[in-house]
From TrEMBL, chain A:
This is V-type proton ATPase subunit a. Essential component of the vacuolar proton pump (V-ATPase), a multimeric enzyme that catalyzes the translocation of protons across the membranes. Required for assembly and activity of the V-ATPase. One of its GO terms (molecular function) is ATPase binding. Belongs to the V-ATPase 116 kDa subunit family. The chain crosses the membrane at residues 422-445, 466-484, 516-535, 678-699. It comes from Salvia splendens. GO terms for cellular component: vacuolar proton-transporting V-type ATPase, V0 domain. GO terms for biological process: vacuolar acidification. The keyword Acyltransferase does not apply. Residues 92-126 form a coiled coil. It comes from the Eukaryota.
TrEMBL record, chain B:
One of its GO terms (molecular function) is proton-transporting ATPase activity, rotational mechanism. This is V-type proton ATPase subunit. InterPro entries: ATPase_V0-cplx_csu/dsu, ATPase_V0-cplx_dsu. Pfam families: vATP-synt_AC39. Its main location: membrane. V-ATPase is a heteromultimeric enzyme composed of a peripheral catalytic V1 complex (components A to H) attached to an integral membrane V0 proton pore complex (components: a, c, c'', d and e). It is found in: Vacuole membrane. Belongs to the V-ATPase V0D/AC39 subunit family. One of its GO terms (cellular component) is proton-transporting V-type ATPase, V0 domain. Coiled coil: none annotated. Subunit of the V0 complex of vacuolar(H+)-ATPase (V-ATPase), a multisubunit enzyme composed of a peripheral complex (V1) that hydrolyzes ATP and a membrane integral complex (V0) that translocates protons. V-ATPase is responsible for acidifying and maintaining the pH of intracellular compartments and in some cell types, is targeted to the plasma membrane, where it is responsible for acidifying the extracellular environment. Subunit of the integral membrane V0 complex of vacuolar ATPase. Vacuolar ATPase is responsible for acidifying a variety of intracellular compartments in eukaryotic cells, thus providing most of the energy required for transport processes in the vacuolar system.
Length: 741, 351
């Protein structure tokens, strides 16, 4: 017994012992207590108001306020992002501000920002209009010819006069400022000019053509610079158009179409002198506006910068506050309305820490009454909580993806740490490839600190999360590779001739996971193997097992272990097991029934809401249990055979891997090396490197990984692992980060 | 090949069918509606919806909410989902999905034309249009003076063009002939959609013809009830009924000559599926008829999810979401106007 006590604690094997605790917190210290518990992060609150909808709960207003604040913060973040500024990564080290002050502050900031945006939008709009006008004026000059007399034959001269106009525009003097609608009385031909988005231009032209029945002339030229559309804040490419037509009806229709298409029309005087004056005027106003806009933008950027400095901190704070109120909403008021009553699960080792935190909360909020913390009994199964570290976390994740262990159930992650990389390596045994993987894993581990603090892409994150899995996988591959004698498919006789040949090794190493698998079954099967080991029999275990089922009475030749083993074994496996299990089951049910009786007697005067009362007694049904066990045992026997066959995939994949690498080695590298040409050798080397990196290292790794995963989930874990527990999710600030983004 | 859709359907339609079934599971349930009906303010509604799939669409709305904002954002979600499905779809599913929007397109055309007739601002009208029924040159509808121009200028480019062959006249537009235009277009649309579904064959044809027949019959009843006491002649009325459905052709003969609601009822009660709808109403009443029809429609739409490997689930999902948005609009209006006693008048529970 002493020896067992001296063993290290089996943290990973059995989940933490949990207890259900009740907290009775005075209202005045509730907020602080919950926030301290959140910092500690070791208590999982139970929702005692499950029947209430979100807006019927006690602290709904506070939750709403927090939601409103986080909306404002998202708005700021969006604005900062749009302005191309960065958030300060380190939260500002200012003293904590109260939530109320923050709320007021945020409202002020939002108001200010919206107003600034509004103003700059207006300015931007005017600016854009002027810019468009400038372009229309310039292009219109091209359309109308610089001396502006006959608009009938402008078409031919359109291209030739592009360059001349700009020079005139700058040199002409400003005489008049008024703008005239672009009309020409000489020929009865009028025109409308403006700017339209490039994507709409074709439809616009077609619509004009249809409306005027072809009695118009459409001229267009691409605008010089794209313009920011104030509505969507995106750069839009525009074209300048000019439509010539005649008649009042047509004018009305064209204006309507312009309006419908969102085309901005600008009046252009036909007289070139006036046009130059207006251009001058527009240019001067543009430069004025530009300075105003820039000043506005600077002001806004300054404001955003000051927000960006503190934004991370504010966001964390609001997120925490919201979490606290959400948690408080899970608590019940007691009868006197002076205390909040909460229930939650916590690991037993955390009891003193929680009590300590609660005491601090009482002291800090200078409450007269302390917080009561006491342990309750529960029928409900506690949550499962494994304390993992960097190394074991990934393996625990692999197991949890299949199912979370029942409370205090043996945790397959313990075995997975070794069996998973090993099974992988059996399929991926090649120490050349293994070394490549090892280098990758080491790089990830060496940069652990740096990579862990930054955001990675989904693929990198997956790699980074599994870095220790990768490390062990590569080490085992190197090991298996040595035994297989494989180095990039080249036989490498490090151990001389004593090393196993590839297929022998495969067979042999199929045998070991077989052993892991069989060991996890009941004693009968493992007994067989141990007998085999002890007697040193040459029997092939496959043959023993397969022929045992196929022809139990035939002579098994050299595969025979001892006389009549099959005759005894088959019924032994089939019949007693259900009965033994049934008896165990019966005992368990009886035990539980007593337990229920005992507890319900003791606590019959407690409130009915509590978890310690059973939600409905499980009827013990003899025939049902019996039938269930029968089915289970048949399933088990069949599963034992079919799953054994499943392990053949180890051999298949290992063979596939070695064959594939042989193909690349012989057909690419050796073939290329055969030529005495440097270029061909280089190309061959490149192709070989590429194929090794992408096909063998990436795809084969994935497929071997996948099969190892399947072997664990389906073939290994279904033998003993029920995995129907639920995970321990403590209320913790640390787990809040970026939840809602 | 009828009965063998299971073999090949999933090649192209499997992914999207899974998507649409996933969307369907996001529809609000009776429990959600019960909670929504208990809300005191629009903020409560927002808070409740934030726990549903509408959450991301409403979370950035500043606090004094309006009913229109809620409806707009909820519709935006539907539109996003529709666009996602449309971009993923291959033929003939993409055409099928496009057919679903033509109804909205007709409504939008009518909305704009009626609006310009009454000299409303075009931008204001565009905001009221259903986003699913938008097309490129919709704003230019305002230019048209009569049906012929409407067709020649704008609609010739839209998928609605073939439906217009019935109603090209040179008359000036007025309320009456706009309404006739709407129904003529809708009739042509339903018949076209019906033919398209028949062409697709299989379970799609079977289920869609049932759903479209119901739609056609409901329109026939509504046309009849709305045209009682107007100048519309019996012949014209008869022309607006779609040429398929349970009522076609004998029921149409009877509906065409109805002069009051009780005669409509008499004609409809001969058809067992509609008997149960009309038996819920008292004599002379037509107010609750809409709700009764909606309830029956929702029931039929939900049933279409019971079968697999057909396109009707897409149609059904779009319709159910639209019904849900109508429900939300009604609940929000009731809450906003403090008329909570009337909240159950028009809400049709989907599950």
């Amino acid at each position: 017994m002493e020896y067992i006590d001296r063993l290290p604690s089996m943290d990973l094997m059995r989940s933490e012992k949990m207890m259900l605790a009740q907290l009775i917190i005075p209202v005045e210290s509730a907020h602080r207590a919950v926030s301290y518990l959140g910092q500690l992060g070791l208590l999982q609150f139970r929702d005692l108001n499950d029947d209430k909808s979100p807006f019927q709960r006690t602290f709904v207003n506070q939750v709403k306020r927090c939601a409103e604040m986080s909306r404002k913060l998202r708005f700021f973040k969006d604005q900062i992002h749009k302005a191309g500024l960065g958030l300060s990564p380190h939260p500002a080290s200012e003293t904590d501000i109260e939530l109320e002050d923050l709320e007021v502050g945020l409202a002020e900031h939002e108001h200010e920002l919206i107003e600034m945006n509004h103003n700059s939008e207006k300015l931007q709009k005017t600016y854009n209009e002027l810019l468009e006008f400038k372009m229309v004026l310039q292009k219109a000059g091209d359309f109308l010819m610089p001396d502006g007399n006959h608009s009938a034959d402008h078409e031919t001269e359109l291209d030739e006069n592009v360059h001349t106009n700009n020079d005139y525009a700058d040199s002409a003097s400003l005489l008049e400022q008024e703008m005239q609608p672009g009309m020409s009385d000489q020929s009865g031909v009028k025109f409308v000019s403006g700017v339209i988005c490039k994507s709409k231009a074709l439809r616009f032209e077609r619509m004009l053509f249809r409306t005027t029945r072809g009695n118009m002339l459409f001229n267009q030229a691409p605008a010089d610079d794209p313009i920011v559309d104030p509505a969507s804040n995106e750069m839009v490419e525009n074209i300048v158009f000019m439509v010539f037509f005649s008649g009042e009806q047509a004018r009305k229709k064209i204006h309507k179409i312009c309006e419908a298409f969102g085309a901005n029309c600008y009046p252009v005087p036909e007289d070139s002198i006036k046009r130059r004056q207006i251009t001058r005027d527009v240019l001067s106003r543009l430069s004025e506006l530009e300075t105003t806009l820039e000043a506005g933008l600077r002001h806004r950027d300054a404001a955003l910068n000051s927000i960006a400095f503190q934004l991370t901190k504010w966001m964390n704070m609001v997120r925490r506050e919201k979490a606290i109120y959400d948690t408080l909403n899970m608590l019940n008021f007691d009868v006197t309305k002076k205390c909040l009553v909460g229930e939650g699960w916590c690991p037993i080792f955390a009891k003193t820490m929680i009590q300590d935190a609660l005491q601090r909360a009482t002291f800090d909020s200078s409450s007269q009454v302390g917080i009561i913390f006491h342990v309750m009994d529960s029928i409900e199964s506690p949550p499962t909580f494994f304390r993992t570290n960097h190394f074991t976390n990934a393996y625990q994740e692999i197991v949890d993806a299949y199912g979370v262990a029942k409370y205090q159930e043996a945790n397959p992650a313990v075995y997975t740490v070794i069996t998973f990389p090993f099974l992988f390596a059996v399929m991926f045994g090649d120490w050349g490839h293994g070394i490549c993987l090892l280098l990758g894993a080491l790089v990830l581990i060496a940069r652990e600190k740096r990579l862990g603090s930054q955001k990675l892409g989904s693929f990198m994150e997956m790699l980074f999360g599994g870095r220790y899995v990768l490390l062990l996988m590569s080490l085992f591959s190197i090991y298996c590779g040595f035994i297989y004698n494989e180095f990039f498919s080249v036989p490498f006789h490090i151990f001389g001739s004593s090393a196993y040949k590839c297929r022998d090794a495969t067979c042999r190493y199929q045998f070991v996971p077989q052993m892991i698998f069989l060991n996890s079954l009941f004693g009968y099967l493992s007994l067989l193997i141990i007998i085999k080991w002890c007697t040193g029999s040459q029997a092939d275990l496959y043959h023993v097992m397969i022929y045992m089922f196929l022809s139990p009475f035939e002579d098994l030749g050299e595969n025979k272990l001892f006389w009549g083993q099959a005759v005894i074994a088959v019924p032994w496996m089939l019949f007693p097991k259900p009965f033994i299990l049934k008896r165990l089951h019966t005992e368990r049910f009886q035990g539980r029934a007593y337990g229920i009786l005992g507890t319900s007697d003791m606590y019959s005067d407690e409130e009915p809401d509590s978890a310690r009362h059973p939600h409905g007694e499980e009827e013990f049904n003899f025939s049902e249990v019996f039938v269930h066990q029968m089915i289970h045992s048949i399933e088990f026997v069949l599963g034992a055979v079919s799953n054994t066959a499943s392990y053949l995939r180890l051999w298949a994949l290992s063979l596939a891997h070695s064959e594939l690498s042989t193909v690349f080695y012989e057909k690419v590298l050796l073939l290329a090396w055969g030529y005495n040409n440097f270029m061909i050798r280089l190309v061959g080397l490149a192709v070989f490197a590429f194929a090794t990196a992408f096909i063998l290292l990436m795809m084969e790794t994935l497929s071997a990984f996948l099969h190892a995963l399947r072997l664990h989930w389906v073939e290994f874990q279904n033998k003993f692992y029920s995995g129907d527990g639920y995970k321990f999710k403590p209320f913790s600030f640390a787990s809040l980060t970026d939840e809602d983004e | 090949m009828y009965g063998f859709e299971a073999m090949t359907f999933n090649i192209h339609g499997g992914y999207l069918e899974a998507i649409v079934r996933g969307y369907r599971s996001g529809l609000l349930t009776a429990a959600d509606y019960n909670n929504l009906c208990q809300c005191e303010t629009l903020d409560d509604i927002k808070m409740h919806l934030s726990a549903t799939e509408y959450g991301p669409y409403l979370q950035n709305e500043p606090s004094p909410l309006h009913t229109t904002t809620i409806v707009e954002k909820c519709t935006l979600k539907l539109v996003d989902e529709y666009k996602h499905m449309l971009t993923q779809a291959t033929e003939p599913l993409s055409t099928f999905l496009e057919y679903i929007t033509y109804g909205h397109m007709i409504d939008n055309v009518v909305l704009i034309v009626t609006g310009t007739l009454h000299e409303r601002d075009v931008q204001e009208l565009l905001e009221k249009c259903h986003p699913l029924g938008m097309f490129d040159s919709i704003a230019t509808l305002a230019v048209a003076q009569n049906m012929r121009e409407l067709y020649r200028l704008v609609l010739v480019d839209t998928p609605l063009a073939p439906y217009f062959s019935e109603c090209i006249t040179s008359e000036d537009l007025d309320d009456m002939n706009i309404e006739i235009m709407r129904n003529t277009l809708y009739k042509a649309y339903l018949e076209d959609f019906y033919r398209f579904c028949q062409k697709l064959g299989g379970a799609t044809a079977e289920i869609m013809s049932d759903l479209l027949a119901f739609e056609a019959d409901r329109r026939a009843v509504n046309i009849t009830i709305n045209s009682i006491g107007t100048e519309l002649t019996r012949e014209d009325r008869r022309k607006l009924y779609s040429n398929f459905g349970l009522l076609y052709p004998y029921g149409h003969e009877e509906l065409a000559i109805c002069e009051d609601i009780d005669q409509v009822r008499g004609a409809m009660e001969k058809y067992p599926p509609y008997q149960s709808i009309f038996s819920k109403l008292s004599y002379g009443e037509s107010q609750m008829l809409d709700k009764a029809f909606y309830e029956e429609e929702v029931k039929r739409l939900c049933l279409s999810f019971e079968q697999q490997f057909h396109y009707a689930v897409f149609f059904a999902y779009m319709r159910l979401r639209e019904q849900e948005i109508r429900n939300l609009m009604w609940i929000s209006e009731c809450v906003a106007q403090n008329q909570k006693s009337r909240v159950h008048d028009s809400v049709v529970f989907i599950f």
